[in-house]
Amino acid sequence: MSLITPSKEVTDSLDIGRVRAQFPSLSQMVKGQPAIFLDGPGGTQVPQRVIEAIADYLKRNNANSGGAYATSRHTDGMIADARAAMAEFLACDPDEIVFGPNMTTLTYAVSRSIGRELKAGDEIVLTQLDHDANISPWAALAERGVTIRMVDIHEEDCTLDMEDFAGKITPRTRWVAVGMASNAVGTINNVREVVRLAHQAGAMVYLDAVHFAPHQAIDVRALDCDFLACSTYKFFGPHMGVLYGKREHLQRLQPYKVRANTNAVPNRWEWGTLNHECIAGITACVEYLADLGRHEKSSVTSRREALAAAFAAIHQHERELMEAMIRGLLTIPGLKLYGITDPKRFDQRCPTMAIRIAGHTPLQLATELGERGIFTWDGNYYALNLTERLDVEKDGGFLRIGLVHYNTMQEVERLLGALADIVGERRASRPSR
Ligand SMILES: Cc1ncc(COP(=O)(O)O)c(C=O)c1O
Questions:
Q1: Predicted local distance difference test score (pLDDT) of residue 49
Q2: 109 forms bridges with which residues in the sheet?
Q3: How many angstroms does the Cα of residue 334 sit away from the middle of ligand 1?
Q4: Nearest one of 77, 112, 71, 46 to 281, comparing CA atoms
Q5: What is the pTM of this model?
Q6: Cα(5)–Cα(316) distance, rounded to whole angstroms?
Q7: Pocket test for ligand 1, best of 382, 386, 398 (most atoms within 8 A of CB)
Q8: Whole-number pLDDT of residue 13
């Protein structure tokens, strides 16, 4: 029996066949069944053009930057292209883009730097909903006498308590770090309101866009955030981190750096030799998305417009999958879905579902699904404050099912069928009293 009732309001326009044909890994089989990748929040698959760009760089242009010969000049050009691509992705200027190994490392770079100017009595506001990469680097500044204030959640739907947020921001607040979306329960936070509250108090805002970036377009100017970090491996690119900072902040703050790094922005924030082959892959991943947008809307004239068209199509497709997934999940006996469950509020969540099923640990569920070729994740995914706050950390956290645009309705149906089977099998094998 199908657990899916099709939604009437949303009509999917994404050319899913064309999308999937570009991802070689999606055609893998597990025990004779097509693999289903529902592990996007931990890292997405990459299209062929990203694989080729990385290999091509290593074949033709592998060199250090800044040399007086062809491959080194090509490397410099390639890095400039990637910076321009990410600037269009985030709607900023290329010199406001900093590359680094991952979001966590970049965040520590910024926290060490702001630690140089914060003093005892200054305050930093963080949230219980955030990934630890947007908590620990800031919380470490407590060593300097900085006060850390944690904003709580509404337990019933895992949304931020915005009243608590407003109360935690005081005239002593210097820094506010918050995620755009939760990598555990999918909640999309009202970061515009956070920016407004923080700026009103004279504080700066650091946004973690890692989980949001594969799902919706980002415009840092419209958000007016001071910094924003994301990771390209979460949006169909290579394992790299990207930091946006307002130019004035990148120029004023003092990073710890080697003397050979110039003081120019963004060079003063990029230490040592960067991962050139992955940077080549970043341009390709932005191009992949732009190409998707051009295919969906042929009238676009710029890459930024193409990216907006891509995310409009992605959003619509993901929304349809998410509605079907959540509707199906809620019919499974003993299943608890954490986060927003009311379809009228689905604009406030990503298609990332955290569940627990009575009588099964998240690890058991992930393992049994994995045996069937369905890849999900179990545990806390570093959203440690949240699993502790909801008291599920000691019991294995959640099972996370993450949808991205290359997933299909058939995959949703297979996941739901597999979960229903697993629950049914366990019930059938229980001794009757
Ligand atoms: C919401 C969120 N923030 C931060 C991170 C850390 O990113 P990175 O692995 O690039 O350090 C992750 C990784 O899963 C994440 O999901």
A1: 98
A2: none
A3: 30
A4: 46
A5: 0.96
A6: 17
A7: 382
A8: 77
